Amino acid sequence: MNPPEAAELFTGHYARLAGWVRRLVDDDETAHETASEAFTRLLAKWQRVDDPVGYLYVVAANLVRDHWRSKQRERRAYAAEGERIQRRAADTGPDPDLRTLINSLPERQRVPVLLYYYADFTVTDVARLLGRPEGTVKSDLSLARTALRRALEGTR
Amino acid sequence: MSDFDDRIRDLLPPVTPLSPPPETFARITRTARKRKRLRLVSSTAASAAVVVALGFVVRTAWPPTAATSAGHNPACTTADLRLSVADGSIAGATVIGREVVLTNQGPRACELSGYPTVRLLSSTDNSPLALARTGGTKLWRDPGNHPLPLNPGAAAVFGVEWTPSDAKCSDSTSSIGALQAAAPGQPPLPAVTLPDAGCLQAGLAVTALVAASTGLTPAG
């Protein structure tokens, strides 16, 4: 690891990455944990990463997806115990409907959607970062778009 | 981009940067170092097991850096070099590129090899926007790592490309103002301005160095 370069990358990108994650999770603490973990993974394999910034966002998107999954499990457990309570309120972020919809997409469409819509990467970059052919990413995004459109038009 | 894409983006709240809590970077580097050590220990143990099983002794000599082993000249230092950017940007389907020149302005011959370290700096506060580490560009074939002797006055060139943002900058920090570069293993040279470089989206990549007299070969 080259400490000055790593420190520079941290200074230049941490706040933005954590802010990006914050849009996708419910609290600052989870956003910081996710951003820190993405940086830790990057620094642990620093010499082998070609595009450090892209790598950070892919790792963060995967961590967010895992976080959503575990929250879903948690919610099911609460529901099973009859404690459905007002968890919806706790889960409410700035765009809870959209987040819930994205979470309901098939696994392979979720991360491309996060990188394309939330992180503003191009289709080409999403394909490169995920190691998938560009056509496959286009097709996944198109399927996701159809599902989201149907859901949004049905709910709004 | 479709109207529906716009509609989805309209639903997203803006990104508000979250400053790191104190000591975050120190904690991250400590944990990363621990993980690296663990990985090294486990891979060393695995290699040792293979060696014992085969009854071979593997002798590994660490190669010295290309600049000192392959060439006869000392490696070029920051003091030997001048950084400039060739006129005009080169645009691909999704990327923008610039040819960057390192000129030996010292009195003696020196040698460069490998990939320079390149950063794009913000137009607002000169903070680093992105750091490019290796080759693999869409605009040029990567000449690969090879020793490149530079006589006084001779120049080497490398390509830098990035993906610009289609729309306006998402915030002020992604507007590109300057480029900073360092010869391999050297501290950075003074940054040069990059007028009209637009906004950085992602994917900063750099080719290896090649003699300016040869020039970079376009990809494809």
Question: In words, what does this structure look like?
Answer:
The complex is a heterodimer of chains A (156) and B (220). Chain A has helices spanning 3-22, 28-44, 52-80, 87-91, 96-103, 107-118, 123-130, 134-155. With 156 residues, chain A is mostly helical. In chain A, helix 1 runs antiparallel to helix 2. The N and C termini of chain A lie far apart (49 Å). The model of chain A is unreliable at 82-94 (pLDDT under 50). In chain B, strands 1, 2, 3, 8, 11 and 12 form a 6-stranded antiparallel sheet that branches. A 4-stranded antiparallel sheet of chain B has the order 6-5-9-10, with no helix packed on it. In chain B, strands 4-7 form a two-stranded antiparallel sheet. With 220 residues, chain B is α+β, with helices and mostly antiparallel strands. In chain B, strand 5 and strand 6 (128-132) form a beta hairpin. Chain B is built from 3 helices and 12 strands; from the N terminus they run αααββββββββββββ. Chains A and B meet through helix 1, helix 2, helix 3, helix 7 and helix 8 of A and helix 1, helix 2, strand 6 and strand 11 of B.
